[in-house]
Amino acid sequence: METREKEIEATTEEMNRITKLLEKGLTDKELEKLLTK
User: Fold this and answer.
1) Which of 8, 11, 18, 29 is most solvent-facing, going by the fewest CB within 10 Å?
2) What letter would DSSP give residue 3?
3) Average pLDDT over the chain, rounded to whole?
4) What residues contact 21, with CB distance under 8 A and at least 6 apart?
5) How does DSSP classify residue 35?
6) How many CB atoms within 10 Å of residue 37?
């Protein structure tokens, strides 16, 4: 169960980071590059 929790935590952090980047005004292409790394 602990592993699952950590996964959820990591996903939340990732989402927060993406949200911050979007707020900064990243273009879809730039975001796509980050996500496909």
Assistant:
1) 29
2) H
3) 82
4) 31, 34
5) H
6) 4
- Residue-wise over 18-31: b if at least 16 C-beta within 10 A, else e? eeeeeeeeeeeeee
d(CA 17, CA 34): 11
d(CA 6, CA 9): 5
Q: Are the CB atoms for 31 and 18 separated by under 8 Å? A: yes
Region 9-32: mean pLDDT is: 83
Per-residue pLDDT of 1-17, as tens digits, reads: 688 888 888 899 989 98
